[in-house]
Amino acid sequence: MKTNIIKKILFSLVLVILSIFSNGQYVVFFAIWIFTTMLLFAVRKLPRWKGFLIAFLFISISYYIGFDFVPFLPTIAPIIITLIFSLLASLPYLVDSFFSKKRKSFLSTLIFPCSVVLIEYVYHQFNQFGTFGHFAYTQQSQLIFLQSISIFGLGYITFLIAWFASVSNWIYEYKNEWKNLKKGILIYSLVFGLTLIFGSYRVQIQKHNSETVRIASISAIDSLKVMVDIQGINKKETENEVKIETRRNTSILNQNLFDRSIKEAEAGAKIVFWAEGNAVILKEDEKELYKKASQVALEKNIYLGIGVAVIDPSNSKFLENKFILFNNEGKKVIDYWKGISVPGGEVEISNNKTTGIQKIETDYGTIAGVICFDLDFPNYLKDASGSDILLAPSNDWKEVAKLHTDMSKFRAIEQGFNFIRQTSLGISIGTDYTGEVISEMDDFTDNNKVMITRLPTKGTKTIYSMIGDTFIALCLLLLILTIIILKNKNQKKEATN
């Protein structure tokens, strides 16, 4: 009796520890494989609704600890988000429990992973935070494994993780029937093996051999950053004084960004761009900023992209978050407004204009641009398909920095573009279309705040960019067919008996 209690306590402790490292800010790539397998085992040992509650409890622990890093949300918000996510993420365990009498067939191992993929997909379609928390991101360090998303998207990674849990439990449950197990083990091993073979081919053999272009991406110096006193500008008695102070500070900030851009152009950079909102300008002075940027781009023969926060105090939503790119003739060729604002503080102050992702042909391939949070939405990034280079000015905060940057490279693999994410208050990276990191800079430790990247000028066409989330539809079809086949098998067995 005591031995069983001790075993259960130790099992639960291991589950708790694994849950902490299975997703989010403390993730270790193998933890979610073991955690999902053990949790499915535990749930199956319990009555249906008790098992469901246990799944809900452990998933809640995992999600809350892993994603409690958003300082600008009300305290209650992470709790509500955790409860919603955990409720939905627990449903596949509930679905699995209805097929307890049909588990002998290897086909039954598909019910759990298909359910996980479908429910996760639905959740992220409605989640205001995009794909934050997606199981696929837990594997960011496994570059060869990740190449499969260039065909099937994020859901395929989730499928293999959940299928591993289901197959492992099936093997354990029928461990004495080796003849029955061999085919199942062979099937999973074959699928997993082909996934790794394809990944190895894409990373090692189908490697880009295109020319590269020198790109300098720049973040503002911390001591020069500007906060605009909106209330002060909107008061008649302080308006002039605050505007004079604001113009003095923004002039110093913006000129520093121009000076550093000129320096990088003289050092050989052909494309220079700034991080999200790092230039700051009052709405009435906006045209002057663009005139200066156009002049620098023309004189230095570079493509110059400015991440700018345009402040319009007359509007309650006073922030216009833009990325403006000038070509080497000084012409404005991209005028992009941030597509998706972060829920919470940013949504409340952002004046958004739908511009869509714009692409331009250059001597260095097709270039497009998006801003930070846009990268968390794979469906939105489909419009960047066909780009050779994607420039992504961004801005983060310390707790989310690594996780958010790691997430961003998945878009490069999915859509086949080479990519730079320049991040103030975060981690900047440049990757090729396989997601391999070419350059990296930590804004918290780098005093220069300039990242130099030799980026390939040729992207690739991916299957995912053409078929989108077809794999999700396949999972739905597979789940329906599996249930029908298992039901018919069961009816035949009962009729025989």
The amount of beta strand, in percent, is 15-25%
Based on secondary structure, the structural category is: alpha/beta
Poorly predicted spans: none
**Kindly state the mean pLDDT as a whole number?**
94
Number of helices: 17
Q: Gyration radius, to the nearest Å? A: 26 Å
Tell me roughly what share of residues is in helical segments. 40-55%
**Largest pleated sheet:** 7 strands, mixed
Number of strands: 13
* CA distance, first residue to last residue: 39 Å
Principal-axes geometry comes out as: elongated
Taken in chain order, the helices and strands follow as HHHHHHHHHEHHEEHEEEHEEHEHEEEEHH
Which tags fit this structure?
seven-stranded mixed sheet; six-stranded mixed sheet; alpha/beta; 13 strands; 497 residues; 17 helices
What can you tell me about this protein's structure?
This protein starts with a helix and ends with a helix. The protein is α/β, with parallel strands linked by helices. Helices cover 50% and strands 16% of the residues. Strands 1, 2, 3, 4, 5, 6 and 13 form a 7-stranded mixed sheet that branches. A 6-stranded mixed sheet has the order 7-8-9-10-11-12, with helices on one face. The model has no long low-confidence stretch (mean pLDDT 94).
